[in-house]
Amino acid sequence: MATKIGIMIRSFDRLCLESLPAHTGKIAMPDTRTLYTVLRSPHIDKKSREQFEMRIKKQFLFMKAKPHELEKKLFWLKRQRIFGAQYEIQFSCKTRLDKEKLQKLL
């Protein structure tokens, strides 16, 4: 039974992840660009404007881990120390009953 871990990382700076653990996939997501326009003088010179932009870089990491490896994988993420980054972690796991164990219980 493997657990799938999905990690979405958002940051204002370029993301450089070093030494990815084994069985890790990396997908670059499209950047988000938000443009703000501010009037310098709202009364007299309407044509005098100033523009600011905010760019957000995104990256999606996915990895498979067995239950006893989860602690190591999360410790790796903590050690990366990407300052100013926002993490969103998604876990998905499937549980299955073994036929042999089920027959022993019955």
TrEMBL record:
<dbReference type="InterPro" id="IPR036838">
    <property type="entry name" value="Ribosomal_uS10_dom_sf"/>
</dbReference>
<dbReference type="InterPro" id="IPR001848">
    <property type="entry name" value="Ribosomal_uS10"/>
</dbReference>
<feature type="domain" description="Small ribosomal subunit protein uS10">
    <location>
        <begin position="6"/>
        <end position="90"/>
    </location>
</feature>
<keyword id="KW-0689">Ribosomal protein</keyword>
<protein>
    <submittedName>
        <fullName>Ribosomal protein S10</fullName>
    </submittedName>
</protein>
<dbReference type="GO" id="GO:0005840">
    <property type="term" value="C:ribosome"/>
</dbReference>
<dbReference type="GO" id="GO:0003735">
    <property type="term" value="F:structural constituent of ribosome"/>
</dbReference>
<comment type="similarity">
    <text>Belongs to the universal ribosomal protein uS10 family.</text>
</comment>
<dbReference type="Pfam" id="PF00338">
    <property type="entry name" value="Ribosomal_S10"/>
</dbReference>
<keyword id="KW-0687">Ribonucleoprotein</keyword>
<dbReference type="GO" id="GO:0006412">
    <property type="term" value="P:translation"/>
</dbReference>
<dbReference type="InterPro" id="IPR027486">
    <property type="entry name" value="Ribosomal_uS10_dom"/>
</dbReference>
<dbReference type="GO" id="GO:1990904">
    <property type="term" value="C:ribonucleoprotein complex"/>
</dbReference>
